[in-house]
Amino acid sequence: MAFSAEDAKTASAVWEKIYADVEDNGAIVLSRMFKENPHTVSYFKNFTQLQSIPETASAEEIAALAEVRGHGKKVFSALNDLVSHLTNVDSLKATIVPLAKKHATELKVDVKDFGIIFENLLHLIGQKQGGDAKEAFEKVTNLIYEEIKAAY
User: Fold this and answer.
1) Is the pTM higher than 0.85?
2) What CATH code is carried by the domain that includes residue 138?
3) pLDDT classification of 87: cutoffs 50, 70, 90
4) Which PROSITE patterns does the annotation name (predicted)?
5) Among positive and negative, which fits the CA dihedral 94, 99, 104, 110?
6) Closest residue by Cα to residue 28 from 116, 121, 114
7) Per residue in 33-75, pLDDT tens?
8) Which long-range contacts (CB under 8 A, 24 or more apart) does 130-135 make?
């Protein structure tokens, strides 16, 4: 599925507003994932702060951890790169494949957990920009998720 120029423009505008606060928003998305889906904490055994508090900490406390903030920024930077390729499916796929392969083979991340991240991202977009923005960006997350699953 290719994005029309208008779809890409709308999605890019939504993303630009979320990405403008990359560190905070990335940390919020990850902290919600960790809090609502505790099994995802197991992927981050090297995050010593996170490993010591996941059951007792609030999502806000988890989002404040330097490890979570740094990785949230890394996740959002990767998404930023993907958003820049929305109008060129071949380029988008070429960007997704190494990311998906690394998560599948090296990091052993269940592909379904990408869906969890995208759900939390869409929830955040809805909170900050409203339902229309959420709906517009859902096309992006659906496309990326399908391409990630295909590459797994």
Assistant:
1) yes
2) 1.10.490.10
3) confident
4) GLOBIN
5) negative
6) 121
7) 999 999 999 999 999 999 988 688 999 999 999 999 999 999 9
8) 133/14, 133/17
Residue 117 confidence (pLDDT) above 90 = yes
Distance of CA 54 to the CA centre of its chain: 20
Predicted pLDDT of residue 56: 87
End-to-end CA distance of the chain: 18
**CA proximity to 120, closest of 86, 81, 72:** 72
> Which residues, including other chains, have CB under 8 Å from residue 88's CB and lie 6 or more apart?
none
Q: How far apart are CA 56 and CA 34, in angstroms?
A: 12
- At 145, which amino acid appears? Y
pLDDT of amino acid 85 = 93
User: What is the total count of domains within the chain?
Assistant: 1
Q: CA 26 to CA 70: how far, in whole Å?
A: 8
**Which residue range forms the structural domain that includes residue 96?**
5-151
